[in-house]
Specification:
heterodimer, A: 286 residues, 11 helices, 76% helix, 0% strand, B: 451 residues, alpha/beta, D-Maltodextrin-Binding Protein, domain 2, five-stranded mixed β-sheet, 20 helices, elongated
């Protein structure tokens, strides 16, 4: 029964995709027709050429057809590691830069948020004391930090990492604190009855109990970090998938922008799947 | 120590030591492809040639002792270091690996093309030209020293040096990058509104507050009786985003840098209302510059950059090179634009978006002279529109920021003939500007924003 349902769902997905492609093809087909050259003076023909409308050559601007899209995707994917200097690199190199920045910022955020969240979660006093700061800092758009970061850190790539750090730290901090605070009292009571030392209690009782909540926080953080890195890289430029989007936007090359959007989506999904897997591992049934 | 390509490695026992290129011209074979210009390696090669005039003797010697032993032996007996220092008559480069920022517009043509054409390399520099997302970022990256030198809007170094819109950090203009080459582009729906008096309520974009674009647009609409601060809206939009905004209808037009004016025509969303050369023929636009601190710390590096960029400017000025230049700067790592757009901008034979082909050979030019009178004009406009307040010592700032004497000196070194003078007068929209009387000039405008 379960298998049949999966199969049906897959078939339906495929069908939806096919319909989507068909609609796309129909919607973009008419724009490819180039104007007829007959009856135009030499000057008019030159004028048309200046607008990029050579006879026999379809102007690439405008919304691409699925076929053009496929060709562009193939072009990028078949040569993902080329490096034409600092302003033009292959898609894999750009992705590696973005992932590197996200990874580093995220790791730093983990190092700060998890221990701090632990402390806050265990002490109701600290929880109350920290609360106003967290409530004010949490809703700030990470990109709003960018000018300040550029000014104080004086390095644009470190500023990018800082922005990732600042956006991923809050969900993790809050979730860790919440997870730690809501560990069952009975378990803690059992631990104190058995005279478990504080450090051992933290690692053997509280951490496993709060792990699913902490992982949820991390998963949310990673999602946000991946959203933010694209915007941050569009802002500071240089390298990364966000820079790629910006550079192709300059050229008004929608095909490349759409390709980048797809890549960003796929990578984001993979990151999310990875955290979902981790989450499954630490989940327990009471 | 870096080595020449194989063809002329003086320590290769299996090849003849060729000091001249196979093409017969008087340069080493490695330079023929423009690959490596390395005076040290060349010096070593000439040394080997001098020690072993007969090539077979050199080869036998190398086979007998091995290349590395031979190299060590020769380096130990000869004061190669001192010789090398003497050979570089221009003084050693303090910093070889440099980052130069640019915005992807044709204004930066000389400093961009100097990269693919190897002009930096020829001066012994290893330069990366780095595409940047906007002018505020250029300013920030110069202030935090990520860039060693950069493409500026020419009023920017004045503003930064005075602390307008940032901390006051002394900056310098080494050369002007380009003259003319900007335009007012309007959306196609405004084809019948060619008189600026009809522009009340329009939204315009300029690349940055401290830009010739902003000053010229303000000047132009003010001459028609509109107050640019109250009658129209002027927004700062990075040049690459102007076309997208025009298409989306966010703005009615812009006074922006090419290729984005021509690109709007190419995309059939806008037309060229006028070229800025019709407002002020020969006006400066962008500049090549760096911080005063960098120049003081790295005078020889700065001189080498100066020579590279001036060489490029001289080449860019020649109309017969323009089509080639369009090809060179069109690829994705530089401007990332269709070649035909760049060709139209640079050759001055272009579609105006209204169905006509126009031929204006001086649509864009690349006169590098940083005239101090131009700096004074920019300061008068900054004063006029309230970007700087109080007394302005026009001449002192202009002379401190615009390195006219240096530019002339380096042009002479390169065999170019710089023009005389420092404060030529010029005419903006029919009104003569006298750099000796900047205050009178500022006061002569009825529309202004001086408190």
């Amino acid at each position: 029964m379960h298998k049949v349902l999966n199969l049906k769902a897959a078939l339906l997905s495929l069908l939806l995709f096919a319909v989507f492609l068909a609609v796309w093809q129909v919607a973009t087909m008419s724009s490819g027709v180039s104007a007829s050259q007959a009856g135009l003076s030499a000057e008019q023909i030159e004028y048309q050429k200046m607008l990029g409308k050579d006879p026999g050559q379809v102007k690439s601007a405008g919304f691409p057809t699925p076929a053009e899209m496929g060709a562009t995707a193939w072009k990028h994917l078949s040569n993902p590691f080329y490096d034409n200097g600092p302003n033009d690199k292959g898609i894999a190199i750009q992705l590696a830069w973005s992932l590197g920045r996200v990874g580093l910022g995220f790791l730093l955020a983990c190092l700060v948020a998890v221990p701090l969240g632990f402390v806050i979660g265990m002490s109701p006093l600290l929880q109350k004391a920290f609360d106003p700061f967290i409530q004010v800092l949490k809703p700030i758009s990470p990109l709003a930090w960018m000018p300040l970061a550029l000014y104080t850190i004086k390095d644009s790539s470190v500023s990018g990492i800082f922005v990732i750090f600042i956006c991923s730290v809050w969900p993790m901090l809050l979730n860790t604190a919440f997870g730690v605070a809501s560990v069952k009292r009975e378990w803690l009571n059992v631990a104190s009855t058995l005279e478990v030392k504080p450090l051992r209690r933290a690692f053997r009782v509280i951490l496993p109990a709060a792990a699913p909540t902490i992982l949820t926080g991390m998963r949310i953080s990673m999602g946000i970090a991946w959203l933010v890195i694209v915007a941050a890289e569009m802002l500071v430029g240089g390298t990364g998938i966000g820079y790629f989007v910006w550079n192709e936007w300059n050229n008004l090359s929608l095909t490349n922008v759409i390709f980048a959007i797809l890549v960003i989506g796929v990578v984001g999904m993979l990151l999310d799947l990875a955290f979902a897997g981790l989450q499954k591992k630490v989940t327990y049934v009471e | 120590m870096s080595r020449l390509p194989e063809a002329c490695d003086p320590y290769d026992a299996d090849r003849p030591l060729v000091m001249r290129c196979a093409c017969g011209r008087d340069h080493a074979p490695g330079e023929h492809v423009g690959a490596i210009e390395d005076s040290n390696a060349k010096l070593e090669a000439s040394l080997m040639k001098a020690l072993f005039p007969v090539d077979s003797v050199r080869r036998n010697f190398l086979r007998a002792v091995g290349a590395n032993t031979a190299r060590a032996a020769i380096l130990s007996v000869l004061p190669l270091g001192a010789l090398q220092a003497m050979a570089q008559e221009k003084g050693p480069i303090e910093k070889k690996d440099l980052k130069i920022g640019f915005i992807p517009i044709t204004c930066a043509t000389p400093l961009i093309m100097a990269h693919p054409l190897g002009f930096y390399q020829k001066q012994g520099l290893n330069v990366e030209v780095v595409k940047t997302a906007g002018w505020a970022l250029i300013r920030d990256k110069m202030l935090n020293k990520e860039y060693d030198a950069t493409h500026f809007l020419s009023p920017m170094p004045l503003a930064i040096s005075m602390g307008a819109g940032s901390n006051a950090v002394p900056m310098n203009v080494a050369t002007i990058q380009n003259t003319n080459g900007q335009a007012i582009t309007l959306a196609n729906k405004h084809k019948d509104k060619r008189d600026p008096k009809m522009w009340k309520g329009f939204k315009f974009a300029v690349p940055f507050e401290y830009s010739m674009h902003n000053f010229l647009l303000r000047y132009y609409v003010a001459e028609s009786g509109l107050n640019p601060d109250t009658d129209i809206q002027i927004r700062v939009v990075p040049p690459p985003e102007m076309v997208a905004n025009l298409r989306a209808g966010n703005i009615d037009g812009y006074l922006g840098p090419d290729p984005f004016n021509q690109r709007a025509v190419f995309e059939e969303i806008g037309f060229l209302h006028l070229l800025t050369k019709d407002l002020w023929a020969g006006h400066p636009c962008c500049a090549f510059g760096t911080s005063t601190e960098f120049i003081q710390k790295n005078p020889n590096t700065f001189a080498a950059m100066y020579r590279a960029v001036l060489t490029a400017s001289a080449m860019a000025r020649d109309p017969k090179n323009r089509e080639l230049i369009a090809k060179v700067i069109a690829p994705a790592q530089y401007l990332n634009q269709p070649e035909t757009v760049l060709t139209q901008v640079l050759t001055g034979r272009f579609a105006d978006g209204l169905g006509n082909i126009k031929t204006v050979p001086d649509r864009a030019d690349f006169d590098p002279i940083p005239w101090q009178s131009m700096a004074v004009w920019m300061l008068t406009q900054m004063k006029r529109w309230g970007y700087v307040k109080g007394e302005v010592d026009y001449k002192q700032i202009a002379e401190k920021v615009f390195l006219l004497t240096d530019a002339k000196k380096h042009m002479k070194e390169l065999g170019q003939t710089p023009p005389e003078g420092a404060y030529p007068k010029f005419t903006v929209m029919g009104k003569v500007f006298d750099p000796a009387k900047p205050d009178d000039y500022v006061k002569s405008f009825a529309i202004n924003k001086m408190a």
